[in-house]
């Protein structure tokens, strides 16, 4: 966490510095009616690229895929750079906004680490895959889904239902009856995430099994996967475009 805190502070400095330097008159008087010089544009671009690179580093540490974070990191620098020359009072707006954003990132990371260290292992039995209002495919590989699951914890707590939100690879969207490894927050039973450790181990085991299987079995696996994708499409769990993208991925593997 200490490295994350340091990076967040460095990110904040590069985020705010261009607008503050312009406001302090480092490039002469600049306001809403001034012609923007090349030096100011270069400073803004340099600050934008620097803060974005640091933010990418932060996201790699946090291991999160929150679209809103990227949206903020993309637009906030320009909002600060264009408003501070208009009035220094805008600093009173952007200071708490940026501090709150940093706190949000730190809190999410802290909760994720706490869940990893103290979470209770559980199995989520898929009851239903909820169809979203709008299908969003990320990098032509992942799709966001909400899955209603029955949570069966290893500590003997009676099973209960919960809603799992996450990204799934096309062709690997769960179906009713599938079992998903989870980690559950002991203090907040409705807060749970994928158990990445067990997921990675299961993926490695499946890959080893496939590598050791004969070629005929590999062809059968492809046929089974295509049948499964067709079943998902027929049930409306994935769209026609998602089906075609997943099918191409299966055939290339």
Task: Walk me through what this model shows.
The protein is elongated, with a radius of gyration of 24 Å. Strands 1, 2, 3, 4, 5 and 6 form a 6-stranded antiparallel beta sheet that branches. The model is unreliable at 203-216 (pLDDT under 50). It contains 7 helices and 6 strands. The relative contact order is 0.09. Helix 1 (2-23) packs antiparallel against helix 4 (91-118). It has 2 domains: 2-116; 119-252, no CATH class. With 253 residues, it is an alpha+beta fold.
Largest sheet: 6 strands, antiparallel
Q: Helix proportion of residues, in percent?
A: 55-70%
How many domains in all? 2
Structural class: alpha+beta
Low-confidence stretches: 203-216
Distance between the termini: 38 Å
Mean pLDDT: 78
Beta percentage is: 15-25%
Short description:
By secondary structure, this protein is α+β, with helices and mostly antiparallel strands. The chain contains seven helices and six strands; from the N terminus they run ααααββββββααα.
């Amino acid at each position: 966490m200490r490295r994350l805190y340091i990076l967040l502070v460095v990110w904040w400095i590069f985020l705010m510095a261009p607008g503050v330097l312009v406001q302090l008159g480092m490039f002469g008087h600049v306001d809403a009616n001034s012609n923007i010089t090349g030096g100011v544009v270069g400073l803004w671009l340099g600050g934008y690229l620097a803060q974005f690179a640091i933010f990418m580093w932060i996201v790699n540490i946090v291991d999160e895929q929150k679209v809103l974070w990227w949206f903020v990191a993309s637009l906030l620098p320009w909002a600060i750079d264009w408003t501070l020359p208009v009035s220094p009072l805008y600093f009173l707006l952007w200071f708490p906004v940026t501090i709150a954003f940093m706190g949000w990132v730190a809190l999410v990371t802290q909760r994720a680490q706490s869940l990893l260290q103290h979470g209770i292992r559980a199995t989520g039995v898929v009851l239903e895959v909820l169809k979203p209002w709008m299908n969003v495919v990320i990098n032509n590989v992942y799709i966001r889904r909400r899955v209603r699951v029955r949570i069966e914890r290893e500590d003997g707590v009676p099973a209960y239902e919960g809603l799992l939100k996450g990204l799934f690879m096309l062709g690997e969207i769960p179906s009713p009856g599938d079992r998903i490894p989870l980690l559950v927050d002991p203090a907040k039973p409705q807060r749970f995430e994928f158990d990445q450790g067990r997921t990675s181990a299961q993926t490695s085991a499946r890959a080893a099994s496939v590598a050791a299987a004969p070629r005929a079995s590999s062809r059968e696996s492809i046929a089974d996967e295509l049948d499964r994708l067709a079943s998902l499409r027929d049930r409306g769990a994935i769209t026609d475009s998602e089906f075609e993208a997943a099918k191409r991925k299966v055939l290339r593997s």
